[in-house]
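in:
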């Protein structure tokens, strides 16, 4: 077991990311979210993009999981799908690299196949982001160091899942059978959901939107108020 994963056990990782329309969408400002998360007790940070991740690494003293987002042809998200991106993330000092571990093809290679090649080419700790149980098992065989349920609900095969509930079943099933840590991520919008994930076997929990996306969280409250008035 790699030391960096031991440091994460039983804690909270905060995903500090932003979208183009967010007013704080810059390396300097997003790094403040990361610093605040560290002050609040987070054991790790997950970050997207080279410049933002580099700034976050400079700002905090806890492990940083880095990734680079691109798109598949169907416009669904793809997590770190090139050797160049991995090399850049390692060069800026990422402790863990998140990689798309789904069966979707990128340059005729599936996620598990890509992870196999990554482990041959680089000395790095790989977090395999998956959406399905079968993908998780395949990523274990490919040499991933840990799994994350990040992509459940965001791939064509899982898009039908509830938008407001984490995939508790996927986490629990993988946690029971995986010899490597399984990390809960995706739609964990409350402390109660996070606690439930730990109870079901999560090694640690990643929360993003509910902590670092005030624009979206504000919308949740606004919609709830509007719906209440309608009733």
């Amino acid at each position: 077991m790699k030391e960096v994963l031991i440091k994460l056990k039983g804690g909270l990782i905060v995903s500090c990311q932003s979208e183009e329309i967010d007013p704080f969408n810059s390396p300097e400002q997003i790094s403040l979210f990361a610093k605040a998360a560290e002050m609040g007790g987070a054991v790790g940070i997950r970050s997207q993009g080279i410049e933002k991740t580099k700034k976050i690494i400079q700002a905090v003293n806890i492990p940083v999981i880095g990734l680079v987002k691109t798109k598949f042809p169907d416009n669904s998200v793809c997590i770190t799908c090139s050797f160049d991106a991995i090399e850049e993330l390692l060069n800026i000092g990422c402790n863990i690299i998140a990689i798309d571990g789904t069966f979707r093809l990128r340059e005729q290679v599936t996620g598990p196949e890509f992870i196999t090649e990554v482990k041959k080419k680089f000395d790095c700790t790989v977090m395999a982001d998956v959406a399905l149980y079968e993908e998780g098992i395949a990523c274990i065989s490919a040499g991933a160091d840990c799994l994350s349920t990040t992509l459940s609900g965001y791939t064509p095969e899982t898009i039908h899942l509830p938008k407001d509930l984490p995939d508790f079943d996927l986490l629990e099933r993988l946690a029971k059978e995986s010899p490597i840590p399984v990390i809960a991520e995706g739609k964990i919008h409350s402390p109660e959901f996070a606690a439930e994930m730990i109870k079901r076997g999560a090694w640690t929990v990643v929360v993003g939107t509910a902590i670092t996306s005030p624009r979206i969280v504000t919308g949740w409250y606004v919609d709830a108020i509007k719906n209440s008035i309608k009733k």
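note: The chain has a mean pLDDT of 96.
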